[in-house]
Amino acid sequence: MDSPRLKRLQEVLLRLAAGDYTAQIELLGDGDDIGAICVGVNLLAQELDHERSTRQRAEAALEQARAAQRAQEVQKMRSLAELSGGVAHDLNNLLSVMMMVSAAMRDPDPQDRSELLDDLESALQRGVSLAQQLLAVSVDTAQRLPVDPSQAVSSAVRLARRAAPAGVTVSSAVPLAMPRVAADAAELERVVLNLATNGLEAMPEGGRLDVVAVCEGGDIWVRVRDTGTGMSRAVLARATEPLFTTKPSGSGFGLALAYTLCQRAGGELVIDSATGRGTTVSLRLPVVSQK
Amino acid sequence: MQSVVDVSKGRVVRSEDGVIAVLWDPGVVVEVADIETVLEAELSLLGTDDAIVMVDSREVRSMTRAAQRLTAQHPIAERTLALAILIAGPVSRMLGNFFLNVSRPSYPTRLFTDEELARAWLRSHRG
Q1: Please, what are the domains in chain B?
Q2: For position A136, what pLDDT does the model report?
Q3: Chain B contacts of A42, Cβ < 8 Å?
Q4: Tens digits of per-residue pLDDT, A201-250?
Q5: What is the pLDDT of residue A121?
Q6: Which of A190, A245, A258, B124 lies at a 20 to 30 A Cα distance from A284?
Q7: Across chain A, what does the average pLDDT equal?
Q8: Do A32 and B65 touch (CB under 8 A)?
Q9: Cβ–Cβ contact B103 with A under 8 A
Q10: Binary contact (A36, B89; C-beta < 8 A)
Q11: Is B91 in the A-facing interface, judged by CB distances under 8 Å?
Q12: Which of the pair, A193 or A108, is modelled with greater confidence?
């Protein structure tokens, strides 16, 4: 009878049964049958411990992969939310223009009924274009054929002028024709209108909105300048982040969309702003061919 | 003529018949580090030849699972034609059976109680 070793063997077997695979039997005594059983139990415990460690590592890797997949899904949802917000923002601008035109059409003596109808038709066309882009959301479908930006900028200015509240003067200097840039005309018009609308909203006490388009060197610069409240450094640092807005009803997409347009066209977006000094947003769009 | 390499817990001997014998000292517990030194010794003795190996585990006190796995999975396994394990009592038999059935070496492996039979079996595997 070998009671100390058998007692120890029993203890270790109970620990193994309870799931403690680190249990090992001290090798007491010689290479007899009980010693062999002890050796076997130790090896079995080591094997179980190894298998469990392997399984835990595999489960951890699987969980990591699942977490990455969840993060990707969250990012997808966020992108979808950003897109929805951007679309709503654009739609809101278009509907504002339509309401302005509609209101003007009720005037018994409209200054230029034909021009109002043109503006209404233009806004409707942009709405259709927006819907088409939404349908093609999974891919970048904007048509970046070489386009003269002057028409898109002029059209945006005309719409902004109609949306301008009392006390705000809107002026523009846009050539009739300009060298072409790689941008979607409807997208460019939407971006300039967004920038102009931002400028108008930054001047609740009235002010001046200037839209200028010039060709400098090999680039087209479209500058939208307002004399409004301006941005603090902290706001300026985050201005192009999607969803970031300081306005209660803002979508946080105006500048984000402008940034994206410039990036896609191979240009850049420059914002110059300070609290109380107004804001100038400049789009630099490289010329792709001379007209 | 024999070639001998001393390792921390025994010796590795290459005899004239080409068999490489791993001779563990009595009462040792074989661990991964011990297997590593033995395998290095085997490689140095092999040169460019393939290996026929005899492990004398008759007086080994124990061997860890990791040491057994390394023996079975080391790159030298690709050059091992056959492995004979000498056993004498319950402990070495237990170790040998674990090695055969759990570590599952890819080369032919058998347990022997007689050294000459083991050597003869190994020589039959020499190309």
Answers
A1: 3-123 (3.30.750.24)
A2: 44
A3: 62
A4: 999 889 999 999 999 989 999 999 999 999 999 888 888 876 677 877 66
A5: 87
A6: A245
A7: 84
A8: no
A9: no
A10: yes
A11: yes
A12: A193
Quote the DSSP letter at residue B75: G
Tell me the two tokens of residue B74. 């080391």
Enumerate the residues of chain A whose CB falls inside 8 A of the CB of residue B90: 31-33, 35-37
CB contact under 8 A, A46 and B65: yes
Give how far the C-alpha of residue A216 lies from the chain's centroid of Cα atoms, to the nearest Å.
30
Give CA torsion, residues B2, B5, B10, B12, to 10 deg: -50
Cα–Cα dist B100/B92, whole Å: 12
Rounded to the nearest angstrom, the minimum Cα separation between A56 and chain B is: 18
Q: pTM for the complete prediction?
A: 0.53
Q: State the best of B32, B73, B91 to mutate against chain A, taking most chain A CBs within 10 Å.
A: B91
- Interchain proximity B98–A43, CB inside 8 Å: yes
Are B94 and A37 within 8 A, CB to CB?
yes
Taking only the tens place, the pLDDT of each residue in B16-70 is: 999 999 999 999 999 999 999 999 999 999 988 899 999 999 999 999 999 999 9
- Domain A143-291: assigned CATH number: 3.30.565.10
Q: Tokens 């004239």 identify what position?
A: B16
Tell me whether 0.90 is exceeded by the ipTM.
no
Amino acid in the structure at residue A143: Q
Give burial (CB, 10 Å; 0-12/13-18/19+) of A197. Answer: buried
pLDDT tens column, A11-49: 999 999 999 999 998 876 667 888 899 999 999 999 999
Q: How many CA atoms lie within 13 A of B108 on its CB side?
A: 11
Cα gap B32→B71, rounded to integer Å: 9
pLDDT reading at A115 higher than 90: no
* DSSP state letter for B78: G
Q: How far is B51 from chain A (nearest CA, A)?
A: 27
Instruction: Give chain A's contact residues with B (Cβ, < 8 Å).
Output: 27, 31-33, 35-37, 39-40, 42-43, 46-47, 50
Contacts of residue B1, defined as CB under 8 A and 6 or more positions apart, other chains included, come to B16
Burial of A134 (0-12, 13-18, 19+ CB in 10 A): middle
User: Is pLDDT above 70 for A253?
Assistant: no
Query: Domain extents for chain A?
Result: 3-69, 143-291
